Amino acid sequence: MSINTVNTTVFPGQRPGTSGLRKKVTLFQQAHYLENFVQSVFDTLGDCSGKTLVLGGDGRFHNRAAVQTILRMAAAHGFAKVLVGQGGILSTPAVSCVIRKHGALGGVVLSASHNPGGPDGDFGIKYNIANGGPAPENVTEAIFHRTETISQYRISDAADIDLNRLGAARIEDMDVEVIDSVADYAELMQQLFDFDAIRKLFAGGFRMCFDGMHAVSGPYAKAIIEGQLGAPAGTVINAVPLEDFGGHHPDPNPVNAAQLIEIMAADDAPDFGAASDGDGDRNMILGRKFDVTPSDSLAVLAAHATVAPGYRAGLKGIARSMPTSQAADRVAKALGIPCFETPTGWKFFGNLLDAGKATLCGEESYGTGSDHIREKDGVWAVLFWLNLLAASGKSVEQLVSEHWARYGRNYYSRHDYEAVETHAANELMASLRIKLATLVGQDLGHYVVELADDFEYTDPVDGLVAKQQGVRIVMTNGSRVVFRLSGTGTEGATLRVYLERYEADPAFHHLPTQQALYPLTLIAEQVAGITDWTGRAHPTVTT
Ligand code: VG1
Ligand code: CO
Asked: What is the pTM of this model?
């Protein structure tokens, strides 16, 4: 065994986006591509002697090869120890949990989350810091700058280690421990939720369907929901992680989780349905013939948080990303706690959680989480709902309808225009920004514009400023249209248009969502000229 220094040249464009570096697998398979990025991460960290690193991924194609490379590079960089998930598998929330529990310096997550996998799909890598959360922007920028000048990396020539066998191994002077992918995470869940009450619920005939989407959450859901909570075998479907996710798109929304939606639409549907994404950090919540928007899910959980033992003491605050609906704000107001509005991406919640300013966080993109870790957490959200269903004895639909009756309903939808021409998408955003100043006070349809700006966020803890985080047009009654470009796609640009309408009157709480939002859809087109710029008359995905 020896450590080699390898000469390399810069690959342009290794800038992490909303959630790490995501590119086509074929790009990652090029010699030196992954190595350059990993060495840039390690160089940014500096001396790592005596430190522990956590390593795992969502099991997609290229996961195992990348794990072996990173282990050899970690040894060359002088890490004392790496905790790696069995089979190279760790969900994003599990990585966060393991970093915190074992006091690691940080972790590397191999995932492109909801992006398709397989040889022609996407691959990704992100670095999480010692609090368990995604590296903040100053760290990801430092990593990016390093990738622009890198000329060498260091790697051991040690043989592959057996990732399937639990236990200890060694590369150079570094200890490698292959850990159970689920154990630490499951133990944390037991501390947060009333497992006895949920066990009783299942024992009483309550039926559920959890769709693992052939991605990473299957093993977690099987071990916890079927194994520990006693749900019947078969409750978790598509439970085995596959390198190409079975050819599907592991994005838990009503469009991509079509099989689950069909199951939940049947007359004899289970009481509760849920799904998670590629790396296990997202969740979709369904009742029988009823789907819950992620924004509403956050608000409902916040309103009932004290049913769960881990949250008995109440919430310190709630944080949501700017495009997420304002349903949670109403709950925060009723509870007399602060509500924070952050840019898109979980990295912006870390400081608020560390500082004890927020307990629950959520994003409209099927992401919910809390201060138990520093990532959004799919299985956690599902267990929270199970705890709530067990404690209340009510159905999902009942809980949500009662919530609307009390707080009003924030109709909400996101329209995605995927793989549009990058230049056109940038021009659309630029021309919108120019218009902003003239919009305030204008009548748009039945609405009057109260605020039109490009969202800018000053972190209340470290004072760092994030600019150009999405154009928002807010009406006098709180209804909104928001525009931003995705930072996770790998083909062209994806325009996201977020629509929100507030409705206080329960007589209007049961309209079809797209119908309720139609006037705002017209306003979005009128203001942004989406069809003209993109050549698209309709979004590719509506959630
Ligand atoms: C999307 C979502 C965002 C989420 C991010 C990462 O980002 O909109 O809310 O945090 O994905 O989630 P963007 O930039 O494409 O809109 V995951 O589950 O992909 O790690
Ligand atoms: Co994800």
From this structure: 0.95
